[in-house]
Structures are given as structure tokens and as C-alpha cells.
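Example record used in the benchmark description.
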Amino acid sequence: MPIKRFILLLIILLGQASLAIAGPRVAIFSDETTTSRQIHQLVSEELRQAGLPELAVGTITSAQKAAPQEPAASAPPTGTPGISLGMLNPGDIAIAIGSQALRHLLHQSTSRQIIVVLITRSALEEELTKLATRAGREIYAIVLDQPLGRFLDLMRLALPQRQRIGVLLGPTTSTQQKPLERLAAERDMTVSVSRVYEDVIFIPQLERLLVQSDILLALPDASVHNRNTVQPLLLTTYRAGVPVVAYSEGYAQAGALLALYSTPAQLARQTIEVVQNLSQGRSAPHIQAPRYFSVSVNASVARSLGLTLPAADVLRERLQQISAGVEKSE
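Model output (C-alpha cells):
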């Protein structure tokens, strides 16, 4: 074999071996919101800190006004190569932070493995239902929705004497009534439901619901809980002496007694775990609830309602033990 041909063949073989060792690249594509950018940065940092030097991190931020063929790209982190959507290979791993990012990736990239975070289960189902580009893709979603049983366990830990749960269900949460009733019955709790439809003033419904409720559970549904309804809802429940258990830290700051949610750092941590599994050829659940979570207690509201609750850290630790037991049994 001529020496030049041998050298060329050797270079090709070494290049292929190098690619095999390096493994898939990872690109991050995010919506343009404050929380998306937070998770974006945290995931970028944790990829480097997780001992995954073989994974190139391309940070790509979507610009909603950019032409579909030319999504705007932000500068990549120091020391890592940038990756554009057009440069992604089918074997690369793409992370979509938010529903807009998922839509862009499904339309414009060839990556077969897409991890999506910062999306509710209903929004995920809506995106995948209306997009024909799902074919041939492996979608791994970390949904924002906390498990219903986790909410009920939090209420039982914090307010053991209050067993009547009231909940307003809108279009995106209507399917949760039966699972919620079943899970509540397993914990010797009862559930009263009032359905809310868009553009309907539901305060009279809420007042009737509170008569038969010790606690109001707020589940994420924009038709029920939005900037126009949160304050009237909190004022009505406060007057009735019924505490609210909600799904976001902001809701607790606004006046809910308790909140159960996952922070950007916690979502980023779980995202990294999925990346590690996929990059090493291990399986991962296609849809998973938040593994890591936080609890907030509004001490001012507790005092006003004459309630004494364990500290937020104590509640979170006990809830974590319960969640770990559930995962182990499954």
C-alpha cells in the first residue's frame, strides 16, 4: 500500500475513533424568558462540572422574531464550541428549555434525542399532538407538574387536621379530577371540585366551594390562575379562613400559605442526569415529574390564620423521604 494512502487511511480511522470516544454533542436551545435563561446558564455550567469533557456545549438562544431558517444564536460559553441548529447531527443530544424551543428544534434540527424542560404536561402534549415532525424523535420531558400525591402529602404533613380539599379545575387540569380523588381517598382525604371555564368570573363558584373545603389546592392552569385572578382568589380564601396550597414560589409570596415547586437549579440538575444517561447509552423515562423540589411557607399568612406549621426545610425533607419511598416501591 502506498505510504500516502496508508497515512490517509490512518487519519480517517483515528478521526472515527476520536468521534466514537467523544460521544454525542449537546446543544441547548431556550425560550427568551428569565427562567429559561437561568436554566440555560445552569445547565451549561453543570455540564462542564459534571465531568463530561467529551460533550461539546453549544448554547443557542431562540429569537422568536428571527426567520425560521436563521434562529439567532448567542455566544457560546468560554472554551466551548458553538453549535448551530444546522450543525446538529442525528446522534447529538438537544436540550429544549420551554415550548417555543421544543417547537424550533422539532422543525429545524435533525437530532433524534431531545430533552425538554420547563414545560407543563398539557403544553407538552399539545406541542407533540400538533407537530408531525415528532416522527423518529425520542422526546425526554421533565415536566413542571408536581405529582398530585406530593401535594396531598404536603398538606397532610403541614395541616394534618384539614382533610377536605377544594380545587378549581380548568380546561388543562380537568382530567386530573379522578386521579386526585383516588389519591386523596388513599390518604383519608376528600376532594370537592368546581370546574372553571375561560372568561367566566369564578369567585361565586369559589365561595360555594370554600364552604365544603378546609384547604384550597391551586394547580397550574392559566384559565384559573393568572394575573387577573390570583389576588381576588387569595382575598376570598383569606376571608373564608381557608389556606391555599399552590404550585409556585411567586404564589406563596402573593399570599398562598404553602407552595410546592422546583427551582431552575433543581430542574437543571435533573436535566444533567438525563443527559448523562443518554450519553452513556442508558435509558431514561420519556416523561418524568420533578425529582427535586422546594417548599415555601408564608409565615405571615400562617400567623394571620392562627396556624402553626413546621419549617419549610422540615416539610421538604419529610416530603423527600416520602417521595423516595414511592420511587423505590415503583
